[in-house]
């Protein structure tokens, strides 16, 4: 910067200052999350992404942030609002979507399944250790042949034999599965044809095995696995006592679908901030490219996508905290925010030109990771049909 040039604006993607909706204590917690992500995660994450490996040494730092189990009361969890939970997800994803996904699978999907569907004894048994991250969980719903059709077509079966359940089948794309301690497995009871949830203790349960999925081009830090259940015997005490049908599974998905919407916003924010910094410092034709009209047009469109998505997820969290959140609300946010994310990260890559495909500049990671966020927790098409049914009164599902 020359002596006569004014300081450049900070690379801030909170254009409408939505962080001011949080209390002072919540903002302090969020600043701690941002500091950890920027000073501890950001310097090492590209290395792990390139190596398709997970940074286990980061787990104690995440634990010490006091964020695991936000939104859940008791059982060693910190409580707090859905709005705070969303801001935390957004802040983590602003630096890295893989760490946000790891955190969401454990704190949201796995812990949420036990919190919503477990008995009091089961909550006391598992949630405190999970909140301390002494035990890490995963969520086994998707199957090799069943993705969007999980609501009515699970192939994994559960057969009760006395006080034991025998599980058979496979689960695919299960984040954290290759190394975690507990797996929430959803299976169809062959006797009543209803979906039930089970907590499988991975390392001590015969008939349970996991194979890591290799060669991913997105969320490479998250370790995804194919779980095989071969006459896997699980005691009745490990069946989630409050889950009796897929409607109970859907309660968890409604909460985590909105989490992915927040995560998509964070991914957009990170890509935008890196692109803005690059544009402010990259010079062509004797001046920073941020001074060119076409670059400023892209930056404005990116910021518009981000701000619209931020306002949507804030309202989504308010609806949840008021007990008014419906499936179609979460579905619209997930579909809209991931579409806007996909557009935003593509423009960020465009601003960087050739450097946009080099991991060293970070935007390539956001660009690639966005493809996974776009697809998981319900594709755009499936979420659109959920919304379409709600607003039209007609089901277009086949």
CATH topology of the largest domain: Butyryl-CoA Dehydrogenase, subunit A, domain 3
CATH architecture of the largest domain: Up-down Bundle
CA-based gyration radius: 21 Å
Question: What sort of overall outline do the alpha carbons produce when their principal axes are compared?
Answer: globular
Largest sheet: 7 strands, mixed
Query: Which structural class do the helices and strands define?
Result: alpha+beta
The residue ranges in which pLDDT falls below 50 over 5 or more consecutive positions are none
Kindly estimate the percentage of residues that lie in beta strands according to DSSP.
15-25%
- Bin the helical content: 40-55%
CATH superfamily of the largest domain: Butyryl-CoA Dehydrogenase, subunit A, domain 3
End-to-end span in angstroms?
60 Å
Layout of helices and strands:
Elements: H1 24-51, H2 59-64, E1 73-74, E2 77-78, H3 82-95, H4 97-117, H5 120-131, E3 137-140, H6 150-153, E4 157-161, E5 164-175, E6 182-189, E7 195-201, E8 208-212, E9 224-235, H7 246-281, E10 283-284, E11 287-288, H8 293-321, H9 327-351, H10 363-375, H11 380-392
Notes on the protein architecture:
Belongs to the acyl-CoA dehydrogenase family. Its cofactor is FAD. GO terms for molecular function: acyl-CoA dehydrogenase activity; flavin adenine dinucleotide binding. Residues 138-232 form the Acyl-CoA oxidase/dehydrogenase middle domain. With 398 residues, this protein is α+β, with helices and mostly antiparallel strands. The chain folds into 3 domains: 18-131, Acyl-CoA dehydrogenase/oxidase, N-terminal domain (Butyryl-Coa Dehydrogenase, subunit A, domain 1), CATH 1.10.540.10; 137-245, Beta Barrel (Butyryl-CoA Dehydrogenase, subunit A, domain 2), CATH 2.40.110.10; 247-392, Butyryl-CoA Dehydrogenase, subunit A, domain 3. The chain is built from 11 helices and 11 strands. The strands form 3 sheets. Strands 3, 4, 5, 6, 7, 8 and 9 form a 7-stranded mixed β-sheet that branches. It is globular. The chain starts with 23 loop residues before the first helix and ends in a 6-residue tail after the last helix. The model has no long low-confidence stretch (mean pLDDT 94).
